[in-house]
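Task card 7
Instruction: Convert sequence to structure tokens.
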Amino acid sequence: MDSRASRCPTSMPPVRSLQSERSAKANFLSLPKGIRNSIYNEVLTLPCPLYLFQEPGSQVETFAPDRPSGWPAMLYINRQIHSEASAVLYRTNQFHLVDITQEQLNLLQSFLDGIGPVNAASLSHLCLNFPVVESKNGHLGKLKLRDDGLQSLKLLQDKCTNLSTLETLVHNKNAAIFRKTDDSLREALSLVDAQVKAIPSLKRVIVRFVVHDGVPTTSAKALMEGRGWVVISGDGNER
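Output:
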């Protein structure tokens, strides 16, 4: 495994109790809260997303290509700094769930459980799969969100109470609805939009496409942008 991958910071390991360390902690904690937050922000905010993945039977781990060596060591100094710094870490960084199958629901659940309710409520930017829309009970013309996508959005509604940006990824395994008629797509987007709007803190919805076979069409793009969503190609350029 790449040395830049690590388990998500959910707990504090034991810390040394040297007198010099105690003095440094005391001096740091004597700084005004605003200055401490500025330091946390400078040290813990990364220029790239944090990618989350989970091997079967293992804990959630993270990978960040440009993560500095030793990041995020300051979370492990003491409990107060851990609490303050964690709030900044989860608020200022982007977290992208890597798994593009139905297992992503398990990854999201494990991640939110692992970081705890306080840190989950601090999250501001998450990227996960665009929900799969399928026929309801096998009937053509009647659509519903597949259970894994619906449950993922409900988890965000319940636990990510300060989520401001939801980024969704469209890839070959969930792009089928974008190849249907505009009427079907319009219905599907309405189903997704209803769940997205149930996240009261949400200010921005991004739909990122990494398929390269004419998806999305001009009309599909217009339907999404009509809902206030941002449509982006895989290279990061807005369409």
